[in-house]
Specification:
alpha/beta, Alpha/beta knot, Trp Operon Repressor, Chain A, 2 domains, five-stranded parallel beta sheet, two-stranded antiparallel ribbon, elongated
């Protein structure tokens, strides 16, 4: 998978990809991440990518020209499955979206800034708009990092255990069941005996029951 990230702050978005799973995925050749500074596609001496909005109003707006030039250059080099804009009013990111995007080959992610982007970018250049929640950040970089993490970890070979992602919360519209490790006893707090029974069908049945109970208590909306 190749992901091209368009931003005015490449130094902000780079760091999540320089550690942990994302770094290992890149080093293994499972994902190819490229960062593009939109200021490199400006035509003015000040390298500015924003301007005042027509009709007045508070907040600056990212201009269409640098964004269009960058996207057009990338599209001339390869085909893209999705051109995503990170925005608070996009569709809410969930596990289903992450699963679907993990099957793609090439994606562009545009990180907004200031008041947002010229609407013509959204109308003519973007194929999908995604939000990571009902709140506003200073820019789309952190949202793009969240999206990339959610997607890249699902690519075969990224996680050490191929079945690990399949048992994550939300994969079956359920929250994950409780998990335990050593020591078996700690301060009088015990691990459920069923986990030491060796009866795998019964353990899986217990985990499913616990997942349903956990979901009913915390996120009953997932069961509707």
């Amino acid at each position: 998978m190749r992901i091209d990230i368009l931003t005015v702050l490449p130094e902000l978005i780079r760091s999540p990809f320089e550690a942990s799973i994302l770094k290992r995925a890149a080093e293994a050749g499972l994902v190819d991440i490229h960062f593009h500074n939109l200021r490199d596609y400006t035509t003015n001496n000040y390298k500015s990518v924003d301007d005042y909005q027509f009709g007045g109003g508070a907040g600056m707006v990212m201009m269409i020209e640098p964004i269009d030039k960058c996207i057009s250059k990338l599209k001339s080099e390869r085909d893209y499955d999705e051109i995503i804009y990170m925005t608070p009013d996009g569709e809410r990111l969930n596990q289903g979206i992450a699963n679907a995007l993990s099957l793609k080959s090439n994606m562009i992610i545009l990180c907004g800034h200031y008041k947002g982007v010229d609407q013509r970018v959204r109308d003519h250049l973007i194929t999908r708009e995604i939000s990571i929640g009902d709140y506003v950040l200073s820019g789309g970089e952190l949202g793009a990092a969240v999206l990339c993490d959610a997607v890249i970890r699902l690519i075969p070979g990224v996680l050490g255990n191929e079945t690990s992602a399949l048992t994550d919360s939300f994969q079956d519209n359920l929250l994950a069941a409780p998990i335990y490790t050593r020591p078996r006893e700690y301060k009088g707090w015990s691990v459920p005996e069923i986990l030491f029974s060796g009866n795998l069908p019964e353990i899986e049945k217990w985990r499913e029951e616990q997942a349903i109970e956990h979901t009913v208590k915390r996120r009953p909306d997932l069961l509707k």
